[in-house]
Each structure stands twice: as structure tokens, then as C-alpha cells.
Specification:
Layout: E1 11-15, H1 20-31, E2 35-40, H2 43-55, E3 61-64, H3 70-83, E4 89-92, H4 107-135, E5 138-143, H5 156-176, E6 181-188, H6 210-218, H7 231-238, E7 249-252
Parallel strand pairs: 1-2, 1-4, 2-3, 4-5, 5-6, 6-7
Helix pairs in contact: 1-7, 3-4, 4-5
The chain binds NADP nicotinamide-adenine-dinucleotide phosphate (NAP) and D-gluconic acid.
D-gluconic acid (GCO) binds near residues 146, 147, 190, 195 and 199.
């Protein structure tokens, strides 16, 4: 049974993984034997990431690549395949969010969020899948969200992207399941990372941010998630333990999606 979770001799590409959720997931895959390759949007972040991985005892390969740039992604994947090997595991983690009321959001901002959070997972998956087919197996993990299922004010672009990412996950499952490629989503709840820091800032009077208190009240676990909460589920979806799990979105949310909320 323990071998089911082994990632020995597997090559994992985790996008946008200099820090945050991507870094935590990559660290967990490395702890189970995977060779870690990651990219980020500029050299400074990649250098920061390489140092952080080294401090964690992980010799990671870092690439500067904007995941929305199809030519750059194709070139990065070709370089990885030539220098390191064909990618066994892809984690489409890179993402942005813009919190703007819809009527104040420009079409350009909406398109930018869709580009990074939805078009890019398509672009990177399209670059990686041919190698997986050649190799006879592959694991793709798309980092979805509560907004793959729920909406809320100010996140129209993000919710549209993450809802689309849920269906892209199911479509990759449908199109490549026969090639022994499993494509699943990992749907974090509200996690303590730089991306959600604005929602958790303490107020000038020292009280918690209203949104912080809201999320605590909407989460049965009565806490924000940590990136470590995502590590076990990510290893499961990256390993042979999930070989018959396909097109599934595994929510790691402390129970948010199951809970209507406490009566006021
Ligand atoms: P984060 O702290 O903002 O990290 C995102 C990473 O992606 C950053 O390193 C970022 O680089 C990189 N990135 C952004 N655009 C990129 C591009 N075009 N090309 C390459 N890299 C790019 O976010 P996080 O909280 O770790 O979230 C990671 C993923 O989990 C995202 O997809 C997010 O939507 C999702 N998620 C987060 C939560 C949460 O509560 N935190 C919950 C559910 C899902 P920069 O630093 O330059 O922006
Ligand atoms: C927000 C948050 C969320 C989280 C995450 C929840 O503004 O509502 O940023 O979108 O990032 O996606 O799963």
C-alpha cells in the first residue's frame, strides 16, 4: 500500500511555485520522491524559489516562463523534456485574482484573469500531454477553488475562470483517459497565502478583518486552511493511489461547501 503513494522517478512540473500553494504542493511531491520543476513569471521569483527549495533540502529546477505565453510554454516544456525528462505530473497552480465590483471591472482585467487562470492551464496541459501519451501515463492536477462552485461579489473574472477550469479538468479526463492520463482538480477552500492576505489584514482598531470573521463562520473547521492542508490530497492525486480517479474535483475546504452557515 505504501508504494501506492510513491512518486520515485517521477518528474513533476508545478507552475507558479516559488511560494504559496504551489511551493507547498511541490515540496510534498518531492518528499514522496518526485523531481521538482517549477516556473514563475520572473527571474527574481525563480531565484527566490530555488533558494527556498534548497533550504527545504530540495534540488528544484526553475524556469522563467509566463504561462499565458504559448510559445514560451512550448519552449520550456521542450527544454525540460530534453534536459530532465518527460513530465509525469503537471500541477496547473499559477494564478491571479482581481477583486473588483463587476460594473467597475474593465474587460481587459476580466480577460487577464481568464488568461492566467483558465487559458494558461489549457496551454500548459496541451504542451505536456503529448509526452504523457508517449510515456503511457500522466497526472494533471488543476488548482480550482471554492469559486469553481460558488460566486461572490467582486470576483466575476476569477469565478468564471475557476468554473471553466473545473470543466476543462473534466474535458481533459474525457479526451485522454484512454491514454492513462488522469486529470483531476484540487479545490482549496480559503487558505492563508499572499493571495488572501488582503482578506485577513487586522483592522486599525486591532479587530479581525470582517471577511476573516466571515470565512471562519462559514467554515465548519472554524479556521482558515494552511498550505500544508493541501499536501496530502495533492500527493494522492499525483500518485498511483488515484489511478481510477478521473475528472474529479477534490475540495479541501474544511467543509465550506457542505455548510449552509450558522443561524444568526
Ligand atoms: P499566490 O500566492 O498569488 O501565488 C501564485 C503564483 O503564481 C505566484 O508565484 C505568481 O507569481 C504566479 N503567477 C501568476 N501569474 C503567472 C503567470 N502568468 N505565469 C507564471 N506564474 C504566474 O497564490 P496562491 O494563494 O498560492 O494560489 C495558487 C493557486 O491556488 C492559484 O491558482 C489560486 O487561484 C488557487 N487558490 C488559492 C486559494 C487561496 O485561498 N489562497 C484558494 C483556492 C485556490 P507573482 O508573484 O508574480 O504573481
Ligand atoms: C476571494 C478569495 C478566494 C480564494 C479561493 C477560495 O477573494 O474570495 O481570494 O477566491 O482565493 O479561491 O477557494
Amino acid at each position: 500500500m505504501t508504494d501506492l503513494f510513491s512518486l520515485n522517478n517521477k518528474i513533476a512540473l508545478v507552475t507558479g511555485a516559488s511560494y504559496g500553494i504551489g511551493f507547498a504542493i511541490a515540496s510534498a511531491l518531492a518528499a514522496h520522491g518526485a523531481v521538482i520543476v517549477f516556473n514563475d513569471i520572473n527571474q527574481e521569483l525563480v531565484d527566490k524559489g530555488i533558494t527556498a527549495y534548497k533550504d527545504a533540502g530540495i534540488e528544484a529546477y526553475g524556469y522563467v516562463c509566463d504561462v499565458t505565453d504559448e510559445e514560451a510554454v512550448q519552449s520550456m516544456v521542450s527544454n525540460i523534456e530534453a534536459k530532465i525528462g518527460i513530465i509525469d505530473i503537471l500541477v496547473n497552480n499559477a494564478g491571479i485574482i482581481k477583486r473588483i465590483p463587476m460594473l467597475e471591472m474593465s474587460a481587459a482585467d476580466f480577460r487577464l484573469v481568464i488568461d492566467v487562470d483558465l487559458n494558461a492551464p489549457f496551454i500548459v496541459s496541451k504542451a505536456v500531454i503529448p509526452g504523457m501519451i508517449k510515456k503511457g501515463h500522466g497526472k494533471i492536477i488543476n488548482i480550482c477553488s471554492m469559486m469553481s462552485e460558488l460566486g461572490r461579489e467582486t470576483v466575476a473574472g476569477y469565478a468564471a475562470a475557476k468554473g471553466g477550469l473545473k470543466m476543462l479538468t473534466r474535458n481533459i479526463c474525457s479526451e485522454f483517459g484512454s491514454a492513462n492520463i488522469q486529470c483531476n482538480g484540487l479545490g482549496p477552500g480559503y487558505i492563508e497565502t499572499p493571495q488572501t492576505a488582503p482578506l485577513r489584514e487586522h483592522q486599525t482598531d486591532g479587530t479581525r478583518h470582517p471577511f476573516d470573521q466571515f470565512i471562519i463562520s462559514k467554515t465548519p473547521a472554524a479556521r482558515w486552511g494552511t498550505t500544508e492542508d493541501l499536501q496530502g490530497p495533492a500527493v494522492f492525486l499525483a500518485s498511483n493511489a488515484s489511478d481510477f480517479v478521473n475528472g474529479h474535483i477534490l475540495y479541501v475546504d474544511g467543509g465550506i461547501l457542505a455548510y449552509i452557515g450558522k443561524q444568526p
